[in-house]
Automatic annotation (TrEMBL):
Coiled coil stretches, renumbered: 17-44, 124-151
Assigned keywords, A-Z: Coiled coil
Protein's name in the database: Uncharacterized protein
Originating species: Eutreptiella gymnastica
Length: 153
């Protein structure tokens, strides 16, 4: 009777050990699967970070170019304003020195100046619109850049 009990106990323990070994192997396989999943996620994250960094670099280059263009337009506007002021001053000096003998010439010059003033005014307005458009574009690019930087974090 003790032999049967021992034999039964031995078989039960053997079965328990076998189940324990199977469970350990299953856990080992699950652990390996999880490690592979973590490595894939890390690789995907690295690829995404690289893509975002490339986008940021492109946006920074575009932003620098737009800022340079905006600065160039502003310099052109300043030069036009200075030219206008010089011409206006020259015109005033010419009027003062011309006297009564230059009434006819004065009328001709005044018409030309009005035409030139209108042209310069249109050019200045166009330049200001261009500068404003570049300013809005720069702000938009900066906003996109900040958005991408927040995404990256």
């Amino acid at each position: 009777e003790d032999g049967c009990t021992l034999q039964g106990e031995y078989e039960r323990l053997s079965l328990l050990r076998l189940r324990q070994e199977q469970a350990r192997q299953e856990v080992q396989v699950q652990l390996m699967d999880l490690e592979q999943e973590v490595m894939r996620a890390q690789a995907a994250s690295l690829a995404e970070d690289t893509a975002i960094a490339a986008q940021l670099a492109t946006l920074r280059e575009g932003l620098a170019l737009r800022q340079k263009e905006s600065q160039d337009r502003q310099q052109e506007l300043t030069a036009l304003r200075e030219e206008y002021a010089h011409r206006q001053a020259a015109y005033q000096r010419a009027l003062q020195s011309a006297g009564t003998a230059a009434q006819t010439a004065h009328a001709d010059r005044q018409a030309g100046l009005r035409e030139h003033e209108a042209t310069l005014a249109r050019t200045v307005e166009e330049g200001q619109r261009t500068v404003e458009a570049h300013r809005r574009l720069v702000e938009d690019l900066q906003s996109q850049l900040e958005g991408l930087q927040r995404q990256r974090v």
